[in-house]
Amino acid sequence: MPPARLTPRLLRALAASHLLNRPLTFCAPPLTLPRLALRSSSSSTRWRTRQSSDTYTRAARTQGLKSRAAFKLLQLDAKHALFAPGQTVVDLGFAPGSWSQVAAEKARGGRVVGIDVIPAQPPAGVSTLQGNFLSGEVQEMMRGFLREGAWAGVGEGGDKDGEGGKVGGKTKGRKDERRRDAEMGRVVDVVLSDMSAPWEPQSGRWLRSVAEPYRRMMNTSGIGVRDHAGSMDLATAALAFAFDMLRAGGHFVVKFYQGAEDKVLERRLRVLFEKVYREKPESSRSESKEAFFVALRRSPDVPRKDVLDEEEDVWKEDEDE
Questions:
Q1: What is the distance between the alpha carbons of residues 124 and 249, in angstroms, rounded to a whole number?
Q2: Which residues are CB-contacts of 186 (< 8 A; sequence separation ≥ 6)?
Q3: Sign of CA dihedral 238, 86, 179, 302
Q4: Tens digit of pLDDT for each residue in 69-81?
Q5: By three-state DSSP, how is residue 234 classified?
Q6: Contact 245, 90 (CB under 8 A)
C-alpha cells in the first residue's frame, strides 16, 4: 500500500503537533445539512388566508372578543331576545369563551357557567369547569354547582321585552312557578350548546392528557355524515341536560350539523318548547353545514319520556351494565 501523500497542509499540522508535544487530531469536516423549510399544509394555508380576510375575524380581534363565533350568538340574541339581566346561563363547550363572553355581558348581575374538555381561560365574570360533559360524574358536579344558592334567584328573574325575553316575571304566579322549579332543581334560564363532535386520532401515542383536548379541538372532520351524527348525539345530550336544569320559560340554543336526523331533534324540541326556530346566522360561513336550533320558553309540565324516550333507554342500558 503506497504511503499517504504528505500535503503542505498536513506537514504544517505535523510540525505544529511535534512542537506542541501533543497528539494530532483529525476532525471530520462539518456535515452541512440542507435547510428544511417548514411548510404548512395547503388546508392550513387556506384557513389562515380565509381568517386574515374574514370580516368577523377582524371585528372580533378589534373588539376584544375571544373568537368570531361571538357574532353568531349576538345575531341570534338580536333576533330572539335570549338574554336578560340576572339570568343564570350555562355554556356547554364554552372554549375559547366567546359565547360565555357574550352571555356575561348580556346577563349582567347573573351567573354564567361554562364547561369544556379543553383547558381555557374563562372570560371575566364566568365560572368554568374543565371536563367531559358526556361523563355522568362531571354532569353531577355541574348540576350541584348550579343548584348551590339557587334559592337566591327565586324572587325576581330577568325580564326583558321581546319574544324570547320572558324568563321570570313579577306576578305572584310567576314567582310561585320559579319556586317550584327551584324545588325540582331547575335553576337555569338559558342553556347554550356549541359543542362539536370529536373523533379518535389516527396516529401517535394515546395519552389522555393530550388526546382528550385534541379530540375536542378537532371541530369537524370534513366528512358530512360523521359530523352530522356526532352533532346529533351531542345535541341530544345537551337537550337532556336542558330538560333537567331549565326553568319554565327558559331558552335553549344548540349548534348542529345539518342532515337527515336533525328533524328528529327538531320534533323533540317542539314538544318541550313553545317556539322552535332553525337558524343560520349571517356570521356562519355559507359553505358550512353548521346551523342552530333556537328553542324558546320551556313548557313546565311536559313528561320526560315525551321528549327523551330514546335517551332514557340509552342511559338505562349504561346503568344496567
A1: 27
A2: 244, 245, 246, 247, 248, 250
A3: negative
A4: 999 999 999 999 9
A5: helix
A6: yes
Are 84 and 107 contacting, i.e. CB atoms less than 8 angstroms apart?
Answer: yes
Cell numbers standing for residue 170: 313579577
Q: Which of 136, 135, 85 is nearest to 112 (CA)?
A: 85
Is the bond preceding residue 96 a cis peptide, omega within 30 degrees?
A: yes
Q: Supply the pLDDT for residue 10.
A: 55
The strand pairing partners of 111, in sequence order, are 88
Residues 85-94: tens digit of each pLDDT: 999 999 999 9
Q: Using CB atoms within 10 Å of the CB of residue 126, give its burial: 0 to 12 exposed, 13 to 18 middle, 19+ buried.
A: buried
* DSSP per position, 28-90: PPPP-PPPPP-PPPHHHHHHHHHHHH-HHHHHHHHTT-S-TTHHHHHHHHHHH----TT-EEE
Tallying the residues shown for the chain, one arrives at 321
Q: Three-state secondary structure along 87-139?
A: CEEEEECCCCCHHHHHHHHHCCCCEEEEEECCCCCCCCCEEEEECCCCCHHHH
Is residue 122 within 8 A of residue 100, CB to CB? The reply is yes
d(CA 89, CA 261): 27
Alpha-carbon distances of 49 from 198, 209, 285, rounded to whole Å? 25, 31, 15
The alpha carbon dihedral of 197, 203, 206, 211 has a sign of negative
DSSP state of 2: P
Catalytic site residue from 79, 160, 255, 289: 255
C-alpha pair distances (Å), 127 with each of 88, 100, 116, 290, 309: 11, 9, 12, 27, 32
Digit-coded pLDDT (tens) for 105-149: 999 999 999 999 888 899 999 999 999 999 999 999 999 999 986
Q: Cα–Cα distance between 90 and 147 in angstroms, integer?
A: 12
Give domain limits for the chain.
68-320
Superfamily of domain 68-320 in CATH is: Vaccinia Virus protein VP39 (3.40.50.150)
273 CB neighbour count, 10 Å cutoff: 24
280 classed as catalytic: no
